[in-house]
């Protein structure tokens, strides 16, 4: 396994030492399966502390599972989910949401990753029209696939719009930690009090080995989720190993500290890039992701320094857009080495 840092994805990072230690501690003796153990009960209480006493959490293995299970409790097969055309639901889940839900995804234009209420209004005429899938859910990525965040007033407006039309609001929170760290760290204020119904709560991209959660904030929807999780093949028999990770994750706000470090390194890299004329930021840096247009000749040498994905090849003549993702274990020295390599490439061109 390589020891070099990667900017390809926060999935490339390892497991935080505190999480690994928690897994080892959980691996002692026997415990009842399928969530009937004390660690899972404690994890559920920890989620209530984050989101409020009415919240119920359901631990699952991965992000795709969290999304489709979350949505299964909100939508019937003749209904539809609004989502961004850049969303993970639409682009990167191999059709799993539509296969598992039997429902339709309606994609909306992405404006720096975010969708707009005005782009949903033309579809309101579908409500009650027998020839159309019936809109039912608004799915918002927080943060988005572009690293942008919905501010509380923006998210509140979506929740108000949803209530006015009988819709539900789902949060795809694969990187919810980065968004919450950027917005002040209060899940009750940022989600529960605004009227969000269900949250897919990520952890794997922020130091967990595996494990996400479906957090159901709307009490009227909670009763069916235990069976939905089992039906969706995400009921872990040895649930304690998922729960133990989340307990360590929440202790002393480790999850927020990890996310804040990743966000800070993205901001630091953005600041350092100001001294590199050949590198152009494509969008503001709000969380742990940067989108940077670079000379094509620089791509391979820089990928050897810290591997990253080319997001849009040949986005302009002789240049391509790269996505650089900072993880919880990225440090200033990694960023400095990356920028220094840019300096070397720039000097070679002179």
TrEMBL record:
Its cofactor is pyridoxal 5'-phosphate. Keywords: Pyridoxal phosphate. Residues 7-293 form the Aromatic amino acid beta-eliminating lyase/threonine aldolase domain. SUPFAM superfamilies: PLP-dependent transferases (SSF53383). InterPro entries: ArAA_b-elim_lyase/Thr_aldolase (IPR001597), PyrdxlP-dep_Trfase (IPR015424), PyrdxlP-dep_Trfase_major (IPR015421), PyrdxlP-dep_Trfase_small (IPR015422). One of its GO terms (biological process) is amino acid metabolic process. Homotetramer. This is Threonine aldolase. It comes from Zobellella denitrificans.
């Amino acid at each position: 396994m390589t020891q070099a840092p990667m900017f390809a994805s926060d999935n490339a990072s390892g497991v935080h030492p505190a999480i690994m230690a928690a897994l080892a501690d959980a691996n002692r003796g026997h415990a009842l399966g399928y969530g009937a153990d004390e660690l899972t009960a404690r994890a559920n209480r920890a989620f209530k502390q984050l989101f409020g006493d009415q919240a119920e959490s359901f631990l699952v293995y991965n992000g795709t599972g969290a999304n489709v299970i979350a949505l299964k409790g909100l939508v019937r097969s003749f209904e539809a989910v609004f989502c961004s055309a850049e969303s993970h639901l639409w682009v990167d889940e191999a059709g799993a949401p539509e296969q598992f839900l039997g429902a339709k995804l309606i994609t909306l234009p992405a404006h720096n990753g975010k969708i707009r209420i005005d782009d949903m209004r033309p579809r309101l005429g579908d409500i009650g029209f027998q020839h159309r899938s019936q809109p039912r859910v608004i799915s918002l990525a927080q943060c988005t696939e572009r690293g942008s965040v919905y501010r509380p007033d923006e998210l509140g407006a979506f929740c108000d719009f949803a209530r006015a039309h009988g819709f539900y609001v789902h949060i795809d929170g694969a990187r919810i930690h980065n968004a919450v760290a950027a917005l002040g760290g209060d899940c009750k204020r940022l989600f529960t009090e605004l009227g969000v119904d269900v949250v897919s709560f990520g952890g794997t991209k922020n130091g967990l080995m595996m494990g996400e959660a479906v957090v159901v904030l709307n009490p009227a929807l909670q009763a069916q989720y235990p069976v939905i999780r089992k039906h969706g093949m995400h009921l872990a028999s040895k649930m304690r190993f998922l729960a133990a990770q989340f307990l360590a994750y929440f202790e002393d706000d480790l999850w927020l500290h990890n996310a804040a470090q990743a966000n800070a390194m993205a901001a630091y890299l953005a600041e350092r890039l100001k001294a590199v004329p050949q590198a152009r930021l494509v969008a503001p840096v709000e969380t742990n992701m940067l989108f940077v247009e670079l000379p094509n000749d620089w791509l391979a040498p820089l990928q050897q320094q810290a591997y990253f994905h080319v997001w849009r090849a040949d986005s302009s003549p002789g240049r391509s857009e790269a996505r650089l993702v900072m993880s919880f274990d990225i440090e200033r020295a990694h960023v400095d080495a990356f920028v220094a390599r840019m300096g070397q490439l720039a000097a070679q061109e002179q």
